[in-house]
Amino acid sequence: MKKYLDKFFTYLEVEKNYSSHTTLNYRIDLEEFAAFLGKTPIADVGYPDLRRFLAQLKGRNLKPRSLARKLSSLRSFLKFLQREGVIQSNPAKLLVTPKLDKPLPHFMSEDETVQLIEAPQSGKINSPRDKAIFEVLYSTGIRVSELVGLNVDDVDFIGNIIKVMGKGKKERMVPIGDQALNALKEYLDKRKVDNKFIFANKGGTRLGDRSVRNIINKYILQQAMAQHVTPHMFRHSFATHLLDHGADLRSVQELLGHVNLSTTQIYTHLTTDKLKKVYDKSHPRA
Question: Is 267 among the catalytic positions?
Answer without folding.
Answer: yes
